[in-house]
């Protein structure tokens, strides 16, 4: 959790700028359709939500995430896709879907809050 | 005894909204009905109870992972303003400096976070946009000492005389820059608990006690509040609960006591409806309960945006 007490301080802005938020790993076990991504400064919050979105995609053969160490705020997302689809494009598609779901939820919450406020004008100032 | 008429629990419907006269509340629906929906299934959102402090909202048809992300964001990543630095000038009370500083850091402040920027990385950049300053200058006179506050001189270093208790009331807000004019109507004082009390109840102290002093003891300190990403005293929990009886399923804790009775245990099946999430938000800060949830959704949208922008940049290079 990003609690900024000095003992467990957040990385400063300059440190964060030196590391990209998302990294596409290179190496012998990486290829276009079987790729690991390292996402800095994220945890189960994004990882779990993203994993479920990934698994809904028919192009995904394997999708998962790990938190390599609980004291380091970073997750690794591993995606294997069917031939002809690149893992990067699937990840982008999934992130876009997650964002659109959020926008939809936001709109629904706002509509519902307005409805509730109208129905109970004395409950909320 | 064999029960033929088994009652399947996921068919159980949660009790209707009793606070309004409307027994069949209309639900906001999205999903397969609309082609543009990003959800695979029908999804509904329904608020059951809402005021500034509490929110009980049902997410129906959503996946747990998304709603759990909101819960985690509400707890850890919706930013509020809290006291972060305490400069202790004098502390002759029995409360140790670090203990007192920690207590002060937990005070909920009446500071709207959306009007402030995040904490600066450099102390030189402290300004009216990102910092709120408080001072505590109290001395205990003792109960039998008639000394009045107006007799205090500047060289005493204290501005307030107390009998025993030092509370959040004694924390003085010291406006930085234009804060005095901008927040003239809503001073950035510690949050006051607005408990509605019957008129016959008197002498209730609704402010938070920071320390207890003996005569002559004094406290002099400065406290600086910044907007960080740590929410204080905001609790959210989530239960997916359903019960067998036609009572109020909303407040059932999924007790398994029914299995203690041999004669009825076979008639009961306890299960959860994984598609119906009851989401509670309790606010103890200046943000209203529904604003916290709204901010949580924004945080997740921002995460997606950051990652998408970076991925596009990686591809372009």
Automatic annotation (TrEMBL), chain A:
Top-level lineage group: Eukaryota
Source species taxonomy: Eukaryota, Metazoa, Ecdysozoa, Arthropoda, Crustacea
GO biological process: one example: transcription by RNA polymerase III
Family: Belongs to the archaeal Rpo11/eukaryotic RPB11/RPC19 RNA polymerase subunit family.
Species this chain originates from: Hyalella azteca (Amphipod)
Subcellular location: Nucleus
Pfam families: RNA_pol_L_2
DNA-directed RNA polymerase RBP11-like dimerisation domain sequence ranges: 36-102
GO cellular component terms given for this protein: RNA polymerase I complex; RNA polymerase III complex
Name of the featured protein: DNA-directed RNA polymerase I subunit D
Broad class of where this protein is predominantly found: nucleus
Ligase is among the record's keywords: no
A GO MF term: protein dimerization activity
Keyword Transport recorded: no
Keywords, in A-Z order: DNA-directed RNA polymerase, Nucleus, Transcription
UniProtKB/TrEMBL annotation, chain B:
Keywords, ordered alphabetically: DNA-directed RNA polymerase, Transcription
Keyword Transcription attached: yes
Disordered: annotated segments: 9-37
GO molecular function: DNA-directed RNA polymerase activity; protein dimerization activity
Classification via InterPro entries: DNA-dir_RNA_pol_insert, DNA-dir_RNA_pol_RpoA/D/Rpb3, RBP11-like, RNApol_insert_sf, Rpo3/RPB3_RNA_Pol_subunit
GO BP, sorted A to Z: DNA-templated transcription
Segment forming the signal sequence: none
UniProt feature, compositional bias: Polar residues: 16-35
Gene3D superfamilies noted in UniProt: DNA-directed RNA polymerase, insert domain (2.170.120.12), RNA polymerase, RBP11-like subunit (3.30.1360.10)
Name assigned to this protein: DNA-directed RNA polymerases I and III subunit RPAC1
Gene: LOC108680946
